[in-house]
Specification:
Elements (H helix, E strand, L loop, with lengths): L4 H5 L2 H4 L23 H6 L7 E7 L6 H11 L5 E7 L2 H7 L7 H9 L6 E4 L7 H6 L4 E5 L13 H5 L3 E4 L7 H10 L1 H10 L4 H4 L3 H60 L4 H17 L34 H18 L1
Parallel strand pairs: 1-2, 1-4, 2-3, 4-5
């Protein structure tokens, strides 16, 4: 026997590109007979046109990674499988389990967009009946192996286990809907203050007038703390930059001071250039003030050492000429003396 083509192709390829369809909205009215499979047969693999139909149900409130991992396990139990997921309605859930955070429409949509889900069954029954299993041609039911006591029964999956149709999955530790709700209740004040700050009203949050004022005051205090923190961080950053600049300036000053001291010593040190230059200039000045004497062997041309010739125009200051005639006589006598020397 074969299932219809839609039952075969509706699966991995379609769920990766579009949301999973709802079971009551599909056009598939498959009338093919449903032969019972054993787990051993399913694990060996089935023909392409006969996928193993695995069913997983739950509330799936606040859909999280623990839900997704459970569905992944259900999808990969067998080499060729088709995963149907049943989601209980709000009325049924509130009756047997309690109030939910998400309504049934939100929970249905969350399941439709999980990559492992091939089909979603809305308003799923709390306890699985043979008629429901036959209607959806379910081969196996996947759920964790912890006894689920509800609706007056110690384990609502007991009859499924006895029929050999139950396949266990493993729970993901550290995450559950109850854990998430516990966190919200524990940190209620934090979330209430955050939502008030985001624009929600006290009525929408079911917060009293006094608590609203308290939360808003706390928000103002937190803002002031944040501003002070920002100022402190900016101050620390400014001080760090100043210290960094000061270190650079000190380092540069040390380098320049070493260079200055080296140049100073090179110029004014014991063997510096200034000392050499001073000695050279001192020598020149001494030579200028005390020139070397003439040699003693220079010729005197027969002159008396005690007498040095005087220029003819130098007159004797002690006896100036008394008249023009005397002056002319004196000049003539001087010219005669010069002729005699020559």
């Amino acid at each position: 026997f074969t299932l219809c083509e839609l039952c075969v192709l509706r699966g991995d390829q379609k769920t990766l590109t579009a949301p999973a369809p709802f079971a009551d909205e599909t056009s598939c009215q498959c009338q093919a007979p449903h032969e019972k499979l054993t787990i051993a047969q399913a694990r060996l693999g089935t023909p392409v046109d006969r996928p193993v139909r695995v069913y997983a149900d739950g509330i799936f409130d606040l859909f999280h990674s623990g839900h997704a991992r459970a569905l992944m396990q259900a999808k990969t139990l067998f080499p060729n499988s088709y995963l149907l997921v049943g989601v209980c309605s709000d009325d049924l859930t509130h009756k047997f389990k309690g109030f939910t955070v998400m309504n049934e429409t939100e929970r249905y949509e969350a399941l439709r967009h999980c990559r492992y889900v091939d089909e979603v069954i809305r308003d799923a029954p709390w306890t699985l009946t043979p008629e429901f299993l036959e209607k959806h041609k379910i081969d196996f039911v996947a759920h964790d192996d912890i006894p689920y006591s509800s609706a007056g029964s110690d384990d609502v999956y007991k009859h499924i286990k006895e029929a050999g149709m139950f396949v266990p999955t493993q729970r993901t530790e550290g995450i559950s809907t109850s854990d998430i709700i516990t966190r919200i209740v524990r940190d209620y004040d934090v979330y209430a203050r955050r939502n008030l700050q985001r624009g929600y009203t006290a009525k929408e949050l079911n917060v009293s007038f006094i608590n609203e004022k308290k939360y808003r005051f706390q928000n103002q205090v937190d803002k002031m703390k944040e501003k002070v923190k920002n100022v402190e961080e900016k101050s620390k950053e400014f001080v760090y930059k100043v210290e960094e600049k000061s270190h650079d300036l000190i380092q540069k000053w040390e380098e320049k001071s070493r260079e200055f001291i080296g140049n100073f010593l090179e110029l004014f040190g014991p063997d510096g250039a200034w000392k050499q230059m001073f000695q050279e200039r001192s020598g020149r000045m001494l030579q200028a003030f005390s020139p070397r004497q003439s040699p003693n062997s220079s010729p005197t041309r027969g002159r008396s050492p005690s007498r040095s010739p005087s220029p003819p125009w130098v007159f004797n200051k002690a006896s100036p000429p008394s008249s023009p005639k005397a002056a002319s006589a004196s000049l003539s006598s001087m010219s005669e003396g010069d002729e005699d020397e020559k």
